[in-house]
Records
---
Amino acid sequence: MKNFTSSKMGFFTIAAIFIWIKSYFIYLYEFNLDIQNLMQHFLLLINPISSTLVFLGIALFARGRRVGGYIIIIHTFMSFLLYANVVFYRFNSDFITLPVLTQTSNFGSLGSSIASLVAWSDLFYLLDIIILIVLFRKSRQIWSAERMKMRQPIIIMTAGVLVFTINLALAEADRPQLLKRTFDRNYIVKYLGAYNFTVYDAIQNVKSSTERVLADGNDITEVQNYTDNKYAEPNEELFGIAEGKNIIKIHLESFHSFLIDYELHGEEVTPFINSLVNDEEENYTYFENFFHQTEQGKTADAELIVDTSLYGLPQGAAFVTKGKNTYQALPAVLNQNAGYNSSVFHGDGKSFWNRDEIYKEFGIDYFFDEAYYNMSDEQVIGYGLKDKPFFKESMPILESLEEPFYAHMMTLTHHHPYLIDEEDATIEPSDTNDGSVDRYFQTARYLDESVEQFVDDLKEAGLYEDSVIMLYGDHYGISENHTRALSELFDEEMTPFKYAELQRVPFMIKIPGVEGKGTLSEYAGQVDVMPTLLHLTGIKSQDYIQFGTDMFSDDHDDLVAFRNGDFFTEDYAMVKGLFYDNHTGEEIEPNDEVNELKERVEHELSLSDRVLQGDLLRFYTPFEDWEPVKSSDYFYDSNQIDIDASLMDKWLPKEEQDDDEEIDEDLDTDSEQTENELNDEVNR
């Protein structure tokens, strides 16, 4: 044994065994891969072997001590990739893709969220790297200058390829067309492993990048035919009922619908939002079976889906990877058809999720980011500005906008890891001993109070009664990794089907002059929002490429597709490849009806992907006078609008007015400097 460990092949073997055992341990204890039979368990055991042999085998082509150095470097890189997936999975129940890794500009704002996902016990995952370094330093005598025989690394890497071939064949036997039809990354990792998934993801990204180059005008025809056939005629009573009315969209961060009417410690968690749902005099219509349809892009995906009626991408966020695409988004459509100006209000950095670039492609006129707010320490927590000062400081800007306007108000405080200052917490946490779940209810209460304050301010400003007010949830807040705590909260086992049901998020809307319809049971998703709003403002959605349908239409399509290929309808659901009777929650055997629904979902998602990957909307003209959005027409600087000073006096406390004056002076100076620099450049 001593002779074996004191050799190059011995060192290689130890490194390979370490990464194999660590991968298998993490698969079992960090990821929820839903192992259902012995074959899947066997595949989970062997799938790290192929990539380990191939990647570590590369080091054996080196000479002398470099062999050991390269083995350690490759081993460390593989360990880092695996651990990055561990941290990412703890919140997202998903695996990192290359597009996500490229979104490094977001990492600065993610600090507190990432820190909450790291445990002291994770130091265990460094142990094998430390052992390898010690062995390397103690075995200098084995690193002779000559190369190993060429056939040795070739044999090892060939063995890795052979193991992968066997692995893939067995995986295909248990899950046919694994790499062709599945939309779920959990399946690929379960069957092929995290490293092979990364290789597969890289290939998919190269493939998608070539799709745009190869696309032409003929590719949009099939998509147009599909969306034309799916189009739902508007409700005659509601079509155009909100023409010329302001639209104020309130983005409820990480808000599950189960919070509606939920009581904790004998108290309503969200009493004000509950009142909008339950009080007939408020005149809201609430869709109780409305689902988020986001994937890795989370909030960015929600924005994309709501404002374009396209689905997000299966990997990464289209906001980043497709930020220069052509879009025919709701802000531009409202502007060209009805003269709306559009604004986004967000108390965070403007470059997060590449918003300062893709908003230009959407035709958004104004973007009010953190530069417009008092971002002092006492007003900031977690991802950015607290919701109460955010809404309060947004009011003078909102009142200064020319009407009609489309305003998107994005909240932040109710976001993982659900941090809240003691003075802002007005309800006790839950007692599941799961920190983020327990705090979830406290930040939900804070968000509820913030929305109440904002609604009161809208009423005082005269903007409430005659505006369309829409509230919607963007994505889940409690991931599937917290099923123990969720089971305790709901006093029942949190099965995959039960958790899929929790993907409901609120959608409620108040339409001026229209009596609220109360709670509707219609099944719908975020992709249905844009056609609904267009019809309310008197614009036919049929002219545009949209995968959703008007939620108020008698012909509304109730098939709600999830990005991973699962779905819900009024009668059926598919969750992780299994079918359910949606009335009883019981699993059912596949039949023609559910198989047809599954095929429709896959076809619709693939068409949406083709639109984004091929940038197909550049080939499509909705109507004769449509003007493609030119991003060069938009510039989000500090002086986008003139904010009425009297409105500042009305809404902000004196100390905040002083802060804003200082910010304005700094921004004016920056603007003057920028203008001078541009003039100098022109002169040169």
Note: The chain has three domains: 2-212, 219-620, 654-683.
---
Amino acid sequence: MRKVLAILVAILLVTGCAKQGYPSGGPKDTEPPKAIGCRPQNSSRHFAQRQFYIEFDEYVVLKNADANVLISPPMVQKPEFSTKGKGVLVKLKDTLQPNTTYLFQFKEAIADFTEGNPLPSYEYVFSTGDRMDTMMIAGRVEAARDGKPWKDIVAVSAFRPNDSTPAYVTRTDKSGSFAFHYIPEGQYRLVAMEDNNKNWLPDSNEAIGWDTALFAAQDSIDSTRLTVLRMSSPDRSQQRVLKAEFVERGKVSITTLRPMQHPSVKGEPLEWRLNPRGDSLTVWLLNEKCDSTVLVLLDEDQLRDTLKLRYRASVGKSKKGSSQRTAMPLMYALCDGKKAFYDDMQIAFSCPVTAKEIPARLELTNVKDSTSKMVALLLDSAGMRAKLDTILKSGAEYRVRIPAGLFVDLYGHPTDSLVFKATPRDYGTITLNINNLLNHPLVVEVLDKKDSVVQYKTLKQSGLLRFSMLSEGEYRLRAVYDVDGNAQWTTGDYLSGRQPELFEMYEKTLQVREKWELEEKWTVGRPKATRSENRPKPSFPIGGREIKL
């Protein structure tokens, strides 16, 4: 008997061990689940049920269904989503409208249970009446500043002309494209929005793109006539001082949120200079040892700020560990060895200066052939830069010595002597002859290969613009329609109905080489011709725009 029991125990142990684990190997499942049926069936008419069920070929899970399932028209009371068996059960909580087509879009809300492979999109549609709406509208959301697809997925609402709540809703995909399916005939206002509060309504603090035109639902999508919504973030911030501080005794730096137009500074005796962008202002107090002050910064009706400032020493450590304060020298070169930053040999000053000689004459030496000549050193009107008044040869190596005491700063301090070398490099130039057909100014921008603005200039009417000192490379040109005349691109404002300012790209990419000067003619503001007289013309300069994909 004991032997029989021992044999049975051994058999059970062997079979038990054999059942543990699963065979290894085989390809990993990368396929999303597939829908194999619905109850009631998809595209049902006279739908009167309080729930529907979608069955799949494998077990599934739901991923943030409340956010990832779009219901159009929107429902006040959200449905309840759950998994049941190999499917998804949706229980309806809201009252269904009569004779209405409802669309449920599952945007990556469903994934398989084992590997988590998401189903990119699945649509379940039904009608509460005897017919199914089948019309559609398609379009794209782009950044109003550069015309590229908007960086994030955003909500898009379709409003009937006089309604304040959306009739239908959808979202963009990663390329910025969107489409409304299963909507009735009619015309709609379209608004794209960040929709941070998930209410499908545009809010003043969200990025918004909209159009003043009404768009008619179509029975098919024409890829040559897609709606384009130009999206921009609102600029509701008041002009203000971002930072104001003593950078050293007697010297104050002030930075503002936006460029100042006509600034002034009031207080004790001082001088000030504005940077080229207009958003930073440096103040030199005539008492150079001053460590506390009260300044009033004015910029017409945009800014009035009283600044109470006190100097706090900025201390750095040397290699030996002792503390020392570093300060920029009064005069320094804008060229360093063989890296010339400008076609001209220039020097800069850390505070305004005046010249003892006007103009000063200096000896300029060509190191390679040991020749020298006397050239004038010209000081600019702001007293912040000076340049040698001469034409430099590319590839030559120059040396110049500026004697001590040639300039005196506003405190009466003379400059030290300065010796520096430079090897000028060649640049390219673009000259534009612009025919401006618009009734407002332009901001013309030069863009590099990364679409960064490397130079820009304003043009009130038609005329010539010259962009010099361009390094060798490819450039594109963009003309901003400066409707408000503030010399910069202006974002949209949904509350006031102001669209973001339009822009136009020059049709060619320009290849700039050293010593080249390109001359181009550009007519800005000419409406684009349509391919057919029967096609609707876009409103100009704002409104719907036709694009060709």
Note: Helices lie at 2-19, 65-68.
---
Amino acid sequence: MSVKELLGYKLMLAFEGTTPPPRILDWLAERPVGGFTLFRPLNVASPGQVRELTERLQTAVSPQFQSPLLIAADQEGGQLMALGAELTQFPGNMALAAARDPELTRRVGQAIGTEMAALGVNLNYAPNCDINTNPGNPAAGIRTFGDDPALAAQMAGAMVDGLQSAGVAATMKHFPGKGGAQVDSHFAMPLIDHSRERLEQMELRPFRAAIESGVKLAMTGHFAIPSLTEHPDLPATLSRAVMHDLVRQELGFDGVTITDALDMGALTQGAGQIIDIIAATRAEVDLLLTTNQPEVQERLYHGLQLAYSRGLVEKWHIENSVNRIFALKQWVSQQTWPDISVIGCAEHRELEAEAARRSITLVRNDAGLLPLRLASDAKIAVIMPQPQDLTPADTSSYVKPGLATAVRQHHAHVDEFITTHPPTESEITALRRKAVGYDLLIIGTISASMQPEQTALVNELLALNVPTVTIALRTPYDLTVYPEAKTHLCTYSIHEPSMAAVTAVLWGKTPATGKLPVTIPGLYAFGHGLNLNPESN
């Protein structure tokens, strides 16, 4: 095979459809490829369908090309679950960090990996190794292990161990760390102006831990970091100083590097995109993560070949990358596909419940309201917004509001109020009028610290002086915008197990044992968490 043809192995393709479209089957018969990324809205209908899809892709590869295919997904847990609701809905990284148990994290990683392997998905774009040092980061939040580098490093290593023990390659992302970003790189390029010393003390520590655990891939971050690149407008993805000198030579990573999605606003789009692809290749980034536009995939494939013909990409750039990709494919080929019956099995459901239960953090109980002791005829109003995707790296919109359902397991008289996200002024007015007729309000918020409308709703309801419990259902910073709340908890997840876990704490059925994995600015330090012993009440 010619060097030009080898360039196909650098592409991670995507497509729309629950079965491979003809153009993809033609590609697999005629050209090499690294593999495919599966996306929930594009490719996922059921576990059985996904397994059939991955089997069909693997068998369609021409014998002349290196196999198996790398088949990847964003199965992070928590807010980003790319492979569907039938898989076990584990809480995400921040919830696991709140539980403070690396072995629990390893077990969750192993379970996630086992279920992925049962679908024929052999590469997970996880764990997220960013440190959430900016509470206003629009895209990190609960996808991270928090803001403490030591804890994040411990948890990142454990997650890598768990995933790869199940035969699924783990990916540390977004190198070299974009937790401090002010904007979402899906839409614009963040500038992270940390010093080299700061990076060593904070951002790089989880990546070092992942490398020590043998992580197979490193995903680049599309953000500018001048202390490393010397350019305020150069994405780290395209910088040899970052993607070769730092991650390979200094940190000793010898696995496969992969870009974040190439359709993000932080990178050049349109015809000029090939310039960025050439720059990434020259920086020794191995895999290029495309999305599902056929014309873009063709442009990149042929553009890379032309770049090689014109001497813009050297033979050694290509061969070094392809050798690393082949080594990863060889590792994948040695793994097995478990039976599909492991998906959502009893053991995993028990682990799902344990992880949710151990993450619940009681931040404030100033009114002594907990554990709840209500008259049998007391009326409870449960209020929360309709979950929606707050970033393209989000599957929250697939989750049905479940807080009221969980409350009804403990009390008979419960009314549910689901607001739009964000709530409208008319909704706020109506809820303020209705809330005075209840004995208890339970209000769930989803990143209210970044949404003034949710903030207004909660503060208006708190002013009514009806006994109220507030629950941060996503990022734990919401208390900063309604600090008058007297009873407050964090779940870090909107999935059903976390709803069941938090309501069990409210009624004193289980203890609250989670500890904050971040600082809540101006209010509570990292590690804060009240103990509520159910046996003493």
Note: The longest strand covers residues 380-385.
